[in-house]
Amino acid sequence: MIDEPRLPALNPDELTPEQRDVYDAIVGGPRPGDVFSFVDDEGRLLGPFNAMLYSPAVGGPLQELGAALRFRTSFTKREREIATLAVAAWFRSDYEWYAHERIGRRAGLTEDELTALRTGADPVLADARERIVYEAARALAADGDLTAPMFTEAKASLGRGAVVELVSLVGYYSALAMQLRVFRVGLPGDARPPGWG
Question: Which residues fall within 8 angstroms of residue 197, CB to CB, at 6 or more apart?
């Protein structure tokens, strides 16, 4: 049995001005709606986005942080999705996986790489930067920290700025995974949950 959502989906025509500002930033921003559904047929926000409307003072900056992490970091699209999917898999966040598996596939992740990430196996990554992004993201999700050798390797491979971006990315998607779980956010339409390892 699936739990009922704990935050009713808000209708766009019933939003306060502050909520409408957040809504407009999400639907009018750079997130591509053709990759995954984040708005239903009635214009209501899906996934983590509906919760952002309930506290516009937090939701506005949170959605802006998400946009910055998705579109303005030094990571390649593959690197970003490897890190995001590592977090989604660690927290077994169905919606996060639903959305970012599709984005990852578009970024060039193979079925073998996606399966490894989903099941918790180490993906075979020939690119050294992708490997350290994966290992660091997995460690951050699991332990909330990097060991001294891991930090040294990440700093050497990625640079200090990218390490800051990676810690922020893992923190952001961890927060979304928690919100999705606490608020019992399901998958859109007939999407099926991933088979976790």
Answer: 89, 118, 119, 120, 121
Quick: pLDDT tens for 54-65: 999 999 999 999
pTM of the complete model: 0.95
Residues 121-137 have pLDDT tens digits of: 999 999 999 999 999 99
Could you identify the residue written with the tokens 């927290």? 91
Q: Which two tokens stand for residue 190?
A: 């007939």
Query: What are 182's two structure tokens?
Result: 């606490």
What residues contact residue 157 under an 8 Å CB cut-off, 6+ apart? 128, 129, 132
DSSP helix/strand/coil, 39: strand
Give the closest residue to 169 by CA, choosing from 134, 124, 125, 197. 134
